Amino acid sequence: MKKFFIKICKFLGFEIIDQNKFLSPTLNKELNEDLSIINKKSIVLPLGEVKITRKVNSILIIIRVNTEIEVWDQNKRRLFEQPKIEYSIRSIKSLINSINLCQNKYSDLKIKIIILDDSSKDENLNRIKEIIKDTNGEIISLDKKKFESKIKKQKTQETFSNLASLLQCFEIGKEIGEDLIFFVEDDYLHFETMLEEMIATYERVSSQVGKDIFMCPTDYPYLYMNNEKTNILIGDKRHWRTINKTLCTFLTSKKLLDLYWENFSKNCEDRHDPFEKYINDIYKNEYCISPLKSLSVHLTNVNSSYGLSPFINYKKLWDQNK
Predict the structure, then answer these.
(1) Are 179 and 59 in contact (CB under 8 A)?
(2) Tell me, what's the pLDDT at 5?
(3) Which pTM value belongs to this model?
(4) Of 16, 138, 241, 290, which sits with the fewest C-beta atoms within 10 Å of its C-beta?
(5) How far apart are CA 318 and CA 322, in angstroms?
(6) pLDDT per 10-residue tile (average), the chain, 322 residues
(7) With helix as H, strand as E and coil as C, how does the chain read?
């Protein structure tokens, strides 16, 4: 009778929890394992199951790289005080590790990598090429002349290049993006589970709220400096909070990129205060969430106004991605 009952539950789409043995007979898994099924259902104990109505089919990852400028618009050194190329290399390595873990788990998910490089020396480019040689990644050079008529004249060439590279990333996403698009800067280190958790949480949360969302992989301390209200959500494996500001590393959908294209384009026409002014304006109308605690960390100066994400073993993460 028990086996027959389990078969009936499977047929009807129900899951059984055996509290005594701490397992699910219908899923044939212990309850401390990952119970969710990509593109089908998200299960978190004891909240039960969320049917996935917003399935993820592909993700385009666009990485902005500048291996020459230590810290844009600041006369400071980063945590660990290494040459900028070391941060770019470790950032890309950690991202590839995260992609590989995600791809092994979600084998049907289509993942494409594009690196947009801004004036790196050949020796630095060769190091990057060596890292991505076993991926489907490609490197594109920033076309600065293309944006001379689109971006207002800036006080420094560095600021112009920063705006141009961001705009070219957005244009690439608009042109060839299909589903999710992840815009990534090259001074972030990523935990291996980052991409897997972001995709599973994207499906869960967007299915619950009934619309596409924005996601930031970093828990920024500066967002705790003001007494702002936030909502706490349950993701795939951790809590997430709603936020109303990000920097330029975030994930969203092609649908939202198209819908708010004027904001994305306008954000790059001039330097604003804050730099992400028109991107942040989008979050007045759309959900944007970030993890508690971080899935990616921004390797800035320890005294940066944005700060380092709390409760992270930075030295361990840095050493893991040599």
Answers:
(1) yes
(2) 46
(3) 0.91
(4) 138
(5) 7
(6) 52 56 64 69 74 96 91 76 95 97 94 96 95 93 95 93 97 98 97 97 97 97 88 95 97 98 98 96 98 96 84 96 92
(7) CHHHHHHHHHHHCCCCCECCCCEECCCCEECCCCCCECCCEEEECCCEEEECCCCCCEEEEEEEECCCCCCCCCCCCCCCCCCHHHHHHHHHHHHHHHHHHHHHHCCCCEEEEEEEECCCCHHHHHHHHHHHCCCCCEEEECCHHHHCCCCCCCCCHHHHHHHHHHHHHHHHHHHHCCCEEEEEECCEEECCCHHHHHHHHHHHHHHHHCCCCEECCCCCHHHHCCCCCCCEEECCCCEEEECCCCCCCEEEEHHHHHHCHHHHHHHCCCCCCCCCHHHHHHCCCCCEEEEECCCEEECCCCCCCCCCCCCCCHHHHHHHCC
Residue linked to tokens 């991926």: 135
